[in-house]
TrEMBL record:
This is Acetate kinase. Its EC number is 2.7.2.1. It comes from Algoriphagus hitonicola. The gene is ackA. One of its GO terms (molecular function) is magnesium ion binding. Mg(2+). Can also accept Mn(2+). Catalyzes the formation of acetyl phosphate from acetate and ATP. Can also catalyze the reverse reaction. It is an enzyme of class 2 (transferase). It catalyses: acetate + ATP = acetyl phosphate + ADP.
Amino acid sequence: MNVFVINSGSSSIKYQLIKMPEEQVICSGIVDRIGQEGARVEYKATLSGNEIKEIKLMPIPDHSVGLQAVAEFLTESQIGVINNPDEVEVVGHRVVHGGEKFASTQLISEEAKQKIKELFPLAPLHNPANYLGIEVAEKIFKKARQVAVFDTAFHQTQPEVAYRMAIPNEFYEKHGIRNYGFHGTSHKYVSERAAEYLGKADLKLITVHLGNGCSMAAIQEGNCVDTSMGLGPMNGLIMGTRAGDIDQSVIFHLVNQLGYSLDEVNTILNKKSGMLGLTGFSDMRDIQQQIEKGNPEAKLAYQLYAYRIKKYIGSFVAAMNGLDAVIFTGGVGENDRMTRQLVCEEMNFLGIQIDQTKNESPKQTVQEIQSDDSNVKLLVIPTNEELEIAKQCFGLLGN
Ligand SMILES: Nc1ncnc2c1ncn2[C@@H]1O[C@H](COP(=O)(O)OP(=O)(O)O)[C@@H](O)[C@H]1O
Ligand SMILES: CC(=O)OP(=O)(O)O
Ligand SMILES: [Mg+2]
């Protein structure tokens, strides 16, 4: 079964064509900087044993143009991997917010699309782009079945004590206001790899997903029991451009005392805060460079970023009454030695001790970075949301 996986972001589309159940990646790539200067389509494929990589710079005003350009690469006579878009049997979409309606992977119907649309206000940076990805894919891959895999689904096992908020009951009962949690596909994928690696299922795990968006999950025997994100993907950890946890009074102060509109506050907290707000840069590689240049703001921002993760580790250990392993993943978690070091140092009370040398440059698919006397395993595991989405699609439609 050929599954074309689409991970639509606000300004990018990551994609992979995966043959299931062999898990063979036929091609992959990204459409970057949609609607901006310097837009480009990247395409990688293996043809008769040779790896090829093509980059096409072109104006990409919207997702439709971007996905069309990908379809042209897929079917190109020299470097294409299929003859016709109709050879794609299933398109798997990452959809960030599934609310309480969707606890599992869904075949996309008009009704499902309507529900995804109703959830726009809860994930304004993500769901509109995911929805657009579905609409465009339906036009290009006309014969394919379209499937939605929700970031929120994995977190639906949280107990009420973790997902309810202490606000009047009617807001939950009538309007579904509760903690949902995100990046579930990634938390699920890396926690399953960890369980396989450690050779048992009865585990208390904390997964730390650090990409542009960042979140953590407490996972007991494979089920999520708590997570750092809530109603929308804004709270919890400090992120590239999002503040994470702040005192709610800040919002009222910005509106009532400083005269900002609610829309402006939303933009500030979603797009201008986090590492960007603290340093002027949202990309960790830029911030590392600033630290090397001796920029004190960059140093402080790193400390804040790691301190927040430490606090969540402490609270999740308390929630699970124990801990077997912490797993780092996502662009920062996989690549940024300094973040892992800052998070894990001075955590010996909780049985966490990092080995500086092992932490230098993880090379294995699953790399242990704890010291020999650490009670808790510290693992670096690359995430693969696209593969997990393809697996979910195969699980739903494979037989
Ligand atoms: N070698 C590296 N060192 C530090 N950070 C890195 C490195 N490579 C990537 N990153 C960081 O990873 C983040 C993006 O992670 P990624 O998981 O790709 O994000 P997303 O999927 O949310 O777009 C960026 O902040 C980037 O700086
Ligand atoms: C939910 C979320 O924050 O996703 P991303 O990290 O892709 O922005
Ligand atoms: Mg991501």
